[in-house]
Amino acid sequence: MSAPAPLVDQPWTEPGKGAGLLDVVRRRYLLKLLVRKELRVRYRGSVLGLAWSYVKPGVQYVVYFLALGIFLNLRGSIEDYPVYLFSGLVVVNFFTEAFGNATRAVVWNAPLVKKIFLPRELFPVASVWVAGVHFVPQVVVLLIGAVISGWRPQVLPLVGAVLATLIIAALATGLGLLFGSLNVVFRDMENFVDLANMVVVWLSPVLYRWDQVASAVPAWVATVYQLNPITVAVELYHYAFWWPGTVNTPATALPPDLLVNSLVAVVVAAVVLVAGQLVFRRVEGRFAIDL
Amino acid sequence: MTSMSTTSSAPRAAGPNARIVVDDVRMQFVLRHNRSLKELAMAMVRGKDLGNTFMALDGVSLQVDSGETVALLGHNGSGKSTLLKLISGVMHPTSGSVRLRGRIAGLIEVGAGFHPDLTGRENVYLNGAILGMDEPSIRARFDEIVAFSEIERFIDTEVKHYSSGMFLRLAFSVAVHTDPEIFLIDEILSVGDEPFQRKCLDRIRELKDEGRTLVVVSHDLNMVSELCSRGIVLQRGNQVFDGTAADAVAHLRSL
After folding, report:
1. Residue A16's closest CA among A280, A282, A285, A279?
2. How far apart are CA A76 and CA B186, in angstroms?
3. For the CA atoms of A10, A13, A15, A21, what is the dihedral angle to 10 degrees?
4. Which of A27, A116, A224, B27 is 20 to 30 Å apart from B180, CA to CA?
């Protein structure tokens, strides 16, 4: 073992005061191991293993498709409804899983948080990453479905899809940091987040078309609805994976201000991320005491 | 190695060889009984206070020089472990400041980062990374860690199937093979059977001889007075003695 480094080379530091999310980047090896651990632990003793991340959205998809696509006949008014539905659903699933697990991440890792100092932002970020691991196979399924219904890749729509994914990841991380830190003090947060996650799928045009909302509510409500970053991400996914494959659907099937709304969503997601980080750092001092 | 914290200003009155400077630290715990929003709202409406407070540390100042081995002594509830947690960064003081120079490994509790569903090998990597090692240094030291723990045969078995002794051996082994300048050790020398305990103590002496700084909390007074050069006695959150380890043990026994 090497001898300890000489004192003069070493700066004074304050224990327990890290650089937040920057430390997560610095310690990405640990992040990788935490993600691997969470995946291993989640599927311990399960025969299907990671295949569960296909089964759950698969069942959910079939239920929505039967109830809304067939019984309520939305597939009559939306061309390629199976692709339309699934492209929105994968976005919402990514968000709800990332947000829900990130909210619980600090509490779940209480033994570590209480005993060893490490950048605590690692835990919510690892949860978002795990949700990303589950998200990728769903996108693969989406791609296959889209190709079957006549979709071909185009550059700009795919750029939109990448942007949408980043918006969702940033939004879920920011909200996860915010609610995850508050959840240490008030365990009500995780229940509140579950409730919010239940509503998310209905607050964006996943199961229906955006203009069905616009024609039913006052203009300002429709504007707020359009500025919801999740709505923007869902529409970007429609733009990327659904609309190019349709034949008889005009461009008005997508909301008119999608570009502007996308920029707003980027700003909103960035603000939420910064706010989540700030709150997390304020509350962090109480983690070891309150857990 | 990755640094754990961002750089901060030098503490006032730090000696040239100081590794740890604890400056007038107070730690107050709020003994709360209300946890949910509903209860908090009720408490606010009724004007009930949200629980009394408790001062775990009440103005403690100390400096540990590079290469010193310091025992923190005191009876239960004297604030030893709280002080150790403040130095490790797990908690932040209510007032006052803690400053460090160098990388720190807190052996606050052996095996805190171990997960029962992972194998011994996976846990070595995970725990090494948690304690601040990067991938190449864990890989380079992996065989040494396993050899020290003497559980080579079971390294690819899930840790939940380990006996408690095996578990502690492996956890301790990872911890003493990280490469920090400052070691914080809380009651971990009760690890394993006697031969392994002796081995651990030898290892800790080695770390000491290499010039690393040790802060030890233990109730094993004989071991502490043999291992440490300096002893600090805490009583109800106050520092009541600072001197040689042997004198500190004598002082504690007279309390």
Report:
1. A285
2. 68
3. -100
4. B27
CB contact under 8 A, B6 and A19: yes
Q: Nearest-CA residue of chain A relative to B65?
A: A7
Q: Which of B40, B90, B92 sits opposite A116 (nearest CB)?
A: B90
Nearest CA in chain A to B112: A112
CA B246 to chain centre: 22
Using a CB-CB cut-off of 8 Å, the residues of chain A touching B16 are 7
DSSP state of A245: G
Q: What is the pLDDT of residues B229-254, one digit of tens each?
A: 999 999 999 999 999 999 999 999 98
Instruction: Judge residue B89's burial from the number of C-beta atoms within 10 Å of its C-beta, 0-12 exposed, 13-18 middle, 19 or more buried.
Output: buried
CATH number of B18-254: 3.40.50.300
pLDDT at position B48 is: 59
**Which residues in A have their CB inside 8 Å of a CB on B?**
1-5, 7, 10-19, 26-27, 29-30, 33-34, 36-37, 40-41, 44, 111-118, 186-188, 285, 288-289
Helix, strand, or coil (residue B14): coil
Query: Nearest Cβ partner of A13 from B6, B85, B106?
Result: B6
- Return the domain boundaries, chain B: 18-254
**ipTM rounded to 2 decimals:** 0.86
Distance CA B53, CA B57 (A): 12
- Where are the domains positioned within chain A? 20-35+50-290
Q: What is the mean pLDDT of residues A259-281?
A: 97
